[in-house]
Amino acid sequence: MKKLLFLAVLLSLTGCGETDQNNTSQASLQSSPASVNYRMAASPSAMSAPVASFGQWVVNGYTTEGASTVLNANRTIGGVATEAKALITPNVSQVSKILRKGLGGFALTFAVDELLDGIDWVMDPANNRVIYREPTTYPSGIYSTLFSSGKEPIEVCKFAASQLGKTYKSFQVIGVDFYCQWTDSQHWVGNFQPTPPEEKTLPLDVVSQKIIDNAESGNTDAQAVTLAAAQAIVSEAENDAEKAKPIEDELEKNSKKCPDGRLRNYYGQCFICGSADLEQRMKIDIDIAKGAHESLGACKATHTIEGLTLRYNNYVNEAVARDKLNACYDIPHQPHLNQAKEAWRQAQEVCVKYMAAK
Q1: Structural domain harbouring 145
Q2: Which of 10, 34, 188, 263 could form a disulfide with 180 if both were Cys (CB 3.0 to 4.6 A apart)?
Q3: pLDDT tens digits, residue range 113-135?
């Protein structure tokens, strides 16, 4: 696979990518995995921010949260300093813009290799796609005998065998010669006209969604890309009042303290069930259950009843933990509600279906 260039130019990503001198023609697909050269001066999980402002709010840092980025800001009015946070969540098209600029790095390579199962590929950013060719079990081309021709050598040989009263055994290609071999050791010589494997494409937005999913799962390379996308959103908003208003409004809303005097979180929520320590313990309960089923994988028909029961219990534990934490916030956050709903679905629909068949 050709090397990919990751220019770490946003915020504290101060490392320089190394330019690859290899041929980067789209027509040349090279072997995986890619070798990507870049370095970071800091983890994407916590970045200092360039000078940016929204109204009276001055951005002073970024923190990654899954596929989202938390924008930290403050303002001082009459000598009184106030802090607030806003959540920036790039969508697929915004991540694709980053990929087209060559800022995909390891995240791009990893995502495409996951989607294509390691098949060779090359970027075609001008057309918002990845180009690849699926490997074939035999050379791609037209196989010909006196009786027929086609792209499937076995079928061509079998037809020739039926015309000659022979039994097909195997085929062989040597240069442009094509041999149908029969069980009696005789063979029929044909012709082979090689052609390139069929070129296929993968939309860049599909790759971007995979990067978002990987970032949500905690992949730091993917989070570096979603962070770059969030920073681009902030940069555009600075020069566009319409785009800036939602960010400024969220900072204003989240600057209002909770009844217990604590700051709202970046979802604009107040925890109403007790202390910050309790909130953290409830989050840890979710992480434990989530980590357990992620290491085991989802329920499958091939699992034993014991394996299915273990996975079922893990999903239930996660769903219950999520429901408890969601109920402790004054304002619901739909993505978190959806995560609880999905955990219940995995347990009560997927796992139970397979368990019932045992």
Answers
A1: 141-196
A2: 188
A3: 999 988 889 999 999 999 998 88
pTM: 0.68
**DSSP secondary structure code for residue 141 in this structure:** E
Do 10 and 97 belong to one domain? yes
CA distances from 241 to 86, 97, 128, 230, 233 (A): 17, 21, 29, 17, 13
- The CA distance from 323 to 317, in Å, is 10
Give the chain's end-to-end CA distance (angstroms, integer).
44
The number of domains in the chain is 3
Contacts of 77 (CB under 8 A, 6+ apart): 56
Which two three-digit tokens encode residue 93? 């098209």
Let me know whether 7 and 123 are in one domain. yes
Residue type at 60?
N
Q: Give CA 150 to chain center in angstroms.
A: 39
Cβ partners under 8 Å of residue 314, min gap 6: 289, 292, 293, 296
Please indicate, yes or no, whether residues 87 and 151 belong to a single structural domain of this protein: no
Place of tokens 């893990």: 314
Residue 146: CB atoms within 10 A of its CB come to 12
pLDDT at 5 over 50: no
Comparing CA positions, the residue from 254, 199, 198 lying closest to residue 72 is 254
